[in-house]
Amino acid sequence: MISDAPAFLGQFARHPFTTGAVLPSGMILAWDITAAVPRHGHPLVVELGPGTGAFTRAIQHRLAGRGRHLAVELNPSFATALARRHPAVQVVRADAAALDRVLADRQLPAADVVVSGLPWAAFGAGRQLAVLDAVLRALRPDGVFTTFAYRHALATRPARRFKRLLAGGFEEVTIGRTVWTNLPPALVYHCRRPVSR
Prior knowledge:
Layout: H1 5-14, H2 16-19, H3 27-33, E1 44-48, H4 54-63, E2 68-73, H5 76-85, E3 90-93, H6 99-105, E4 111-116, H7 125-138, E5 139-150, H8 157-169, E6 170-175, E7 186-194
Parallel strand pairs: 1-2, 1-4, 2-3, 4-5
Antiparallel strand pairs: 5-7, 6-7
């Protein structure tokens, strides 16, 4: 995480509303958010907003060479660095709101798991809805979506709105423990079984 901090901070300064954080996520948060990635079979795991790859490393560790890992990153600097660092990951430079088209263009099935590193609390209502709708369309009926929220931002209007969207979009939404060692402290939403809209 420390070695990626300068690159992350630089991208935050240039693109604060799409980068959304000044530091990459820590390893404990990465293990929590990727816990839904199966340790057996050949799942399709989609990662949204991988940034410098804090969650990418954890996903690759859990997959251990199985399945397929698709990372969708809008920032060209992050996408290039991620593809170089993780050759086993298929990195696609695209908007997360086009996720269903990204899968269709590559003739991929619906995803087993979608892991998101996107800054939901920095998104307006329309953007939150557009991206979450794309996630719901891209997931299998028994699929799992995981994302995180910063503890200090939970009371903000965008964070409360996003939590309501999750509750309406999935049959089950559980909130994980607060990872106090993350900078800033964060928690994970584990969302199962998307509700068709």
